[in-house]
Amino acid sequence: MKRIANRVWRVARLPASGEPVSPELFQLGDEAVPEPGPGEFLVRTVCLAPGPAQRAYLLRAARTGVADALRPGDVMRGRGVGQVIRSRAEEFAEGDIVVASLGWQDYSLQKSGGGDFVFSTRRIAPDMRPLSLALGVLGQAGVTAYFGLLDAAAMKAGDSVLVSAAAGGVGSVAGQIARISGARRTVGLAGSAAKCDWLVRELGYDAAINYREAGLGQRLAEEFPDGIDVFFDNVGGEVLDAGLAHLAPQARILICGFIATQYQAQVAPGPSNYMNLLYRRATMRGYVWFDYWDRYAEAEARLTSWFRDGVLHNCEEVTAGLETMPDCLASLFEGRNRGIRICRVAPDPCT
Amino acid sequence: MKRIANRVWRVARLPASGEPVSPELFQLGDEAVPEPGPGEFLVRTVCLAPGPAQRAYLLRAARTGVADALRPGDVMRGRGVGQVIRSRAEEFAEGDIVVASLGWQDYSLQKSGGGDFVFSTRRIAPDMRPLSLALGVLGQAGVTAYFGLLDAAAMKAGDSVLVSAAAGGVGSVAGQIARISGARRTVGLAGSAAKCDWLVRELGYDAAINYREAGLGQRLAEEFPDGIDVFFDNVGGEVLDAGLAHLAPQARILICGFIATQYQAQVAPGPSNYMNLLYRRATMRGYVWFDYWDRYAEAEARLTSWFRDGVLHNCEEVTAGLETMPDCLASLFEGRNRGIRICRVAPDPCT
Questions:
Q1: ipTM exceeding the 0.85 mark
Q2: How far apart, in whole angstroms, are the C-alpha atoms of residue A49 and residue A329?
Q3: Residue of B nearest to A281 (CA)
Q4: Which of A19, A288, A340, B284 would disulfide-bridge B253, Cβ 3.0–4.6 Å?
């Protein structure tokens, strides 16, 4: 292996309360490519997927329930696909393609048997291209949407489904799964006319509503004359409140995220329409995909089958260059992404 | 039957938005005791149970999901226990004791096969005294607490349980069922020191907190060091929000009522701590007992068995006199009742 540098993004400082993600929080430097010790193997990063959880790792009191908070000087944490290029671990051989917690860097050392739970290192089949699928439609975004919609929200054929942040990573898969699973109607909320158009034309949503335009309540009433059976909410705040005003009896509201308010310095007001939970005998449930970790393979198999059948579309948006990662992460909170955000760090290897 | 008057409470006018219940909304008059026609039978009211739903019937846009809104001039609606004193219906004989929608009056005509669903007329065993039990611990209050706690909130042995409005009709049974069902800890919220004392001494709560005193959050943290597994909430508003700040993982919050805010003219703010639903992967569910109507007999049998065994205590608070009904109803919204409010209209008959 020729001697090349390992570009590494480290945490420069933690954000103040309510401070948005910006490149100033990180520092990019050239470091030596590490040498694997016994039981270790070296992975070259192919692509990374920024996710809202990565913002949460930077909070002083991280509430992700999974990982320790990061501190200044730490390599920025993030999941990616990579290739094993040197191995002193029995279970992984050179050339293997893995999904792992690679971090925002070109090269990372992984330990055999290391990386528990959602940070575990998994070998994936190299024939499914692009490899970024394993981070998106067939990876965490897909699995999150799958269990959230079909298990936690118990969506059934014939349900009318509303998805917020429908053009976001999870939402763009959730709407497709609703369609595939026989939803009577699938409606997405997004923040621009272009995104709404994309939801209907590319992803098969029955309708899409630009929540930034006036009259959201009226539009929901039009789209759901019999009420919303399942509301897959990634947004919180006013969007959640608007949906709660149009529930069908026995509705299920999945709280999958609050991208609208989660990182505000001020505590956001709660949804005053929560009283409709009683009037509609509805259920609002907080959901985190890793509670379904032991059923990951089930979701992966179903998603892969749908993808091969051509009914589940890849909806990733790829940018190139490790140096863009801070902006990639920031884009998630600014509504600039469309679909699953992927950062390509190196070309898919020939295998 | 000697000729006597039937005292009847009719609706005088509907309350304005946010207007509290008061005697001015009703008018008491003497009317003739009606004569049953074919298929009808005459019931003499023994006791009545005021309930929050009766306030809801007076709203112009009634959202109870069960009954039509009342209009001025209508007999005030309410469930009670009575005795059949004259019958031209095959299924009911003179002397039968029934639970039915009797209304706020001494005598009412009931139809055989009439009164669907939660307004159905049911014959009850006359040996369980006082007969008011069938309106309280062994009736709607008990059944509401039973299915709410054990089914909708899925309480299991070992759970730590919080009940709000714990000295209210449903709450005073819910806490007892939690204790009987093996709760690790049952804590009640009530609005006075006297009520808190009653909860612990009489009903077997492990602890009780006066929510009107400062430091509710601190007290909840002390009582639930490992968090709340089940929160049976009858209150809403700030009390709900306080509970949401102390959830255990996988917690279940039952929205059984919002006595604190339901009839305010202004829309109350939502619970800003709803975000903990995600962090704790918790479920908040709106619950109305009549969704379990077809399993009523199951609850009744279990409650009766516990009552006979002496572990479930009658916690009714009886006042006498049909003329007190408006005040009885108002008391529910002013925190003046302790336990299940019963209005005795006539003595339990000898059978």
A1: yes
A2: 9
A3: B286
A4: B284
